[in-house]
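Researcher: We're teaching a course module on how sequence relates to structure. For the next exercise, students receive a sequence and then see the predicted structure as tokens, so they can try to spot secondary structure elements on their own. Here is the exercise chain.
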Amino acid sequence: MAVLKKAIYLFLISVVAVTISSWAFGGGPGGGLPTDGQKGPKGLFGILDEDQRETVKAMLEENREEMEGLREEMDSLRAELHELIKSEAGATTLDAKIEEIGALHTEMMKNQVNLRVEIRKLLTEEQKAQLDEMEAEMGTGGRMGGPDKGLKHGKGGRGPGAGWPPPEDLSE
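Model: And here is the predicted structure for the students to work with:
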């Protein structure tokens, strides 16, 4: 019985980790740099000159391909963890798989941060200031908005129930 409780506990932890990583690395609303169509007509591409646009597009494409491979690997590791849980594997085996998932998550996060740093190196001081202003408007949580922006899950964010009306709107 104790093994089952631990397996359920570990499964719940992995679900939380999966959710957090999908928010962090999703290509949709909630993660990444502002690009065309975000924050009005500007976005990142709106502040770049033509040469910078081409360079950044190539960087983003290369990163997209690399991240796609890492996401596939993450999906595989999550499936393996799920199978281990179903097979009632021991805590040591489960912990090792969770560590593997954590290491890949760290690699993905480093990849994204390094991309942002490399893009910033291409920018003039004025462009950096514009980008910083756009990011400040979006809040610390990326496009989802930070805690100071008043955007909660279900209203503009990608968290649980994203896009669902708040409970008070359902009573009408």
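Model: If you want an answer key for the exercise: Confidence is low (pLDDT under 50) at residues 18-31, 36-41, 142-165. The helical segments are 2-25, 43-46, 50-86, 91-122, 125-138, 167-170.
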